[in-house]
């Protein structure tokens, strides 16, 4: 009986955690941070005409 209560409590806590992070997806960013390449910085021309991508080396 105690084991069943513990399992139900863990499921409820897991659901609460998923719902708490559903809108932010910060946990997905944390998990997949190493899999994505870093985005290249983009510099917008002050005149607003061109967008220049600055290479990172």
Automatic annotation (TrEMBL):
Membrane-spanning segments: 7-25
Name of the protein described by the UniProt record: Uncharacterized protein
Record key words, sorted: Membrane, Transmembrane, Transmembrane helix
Keyword Membrane in record: yes
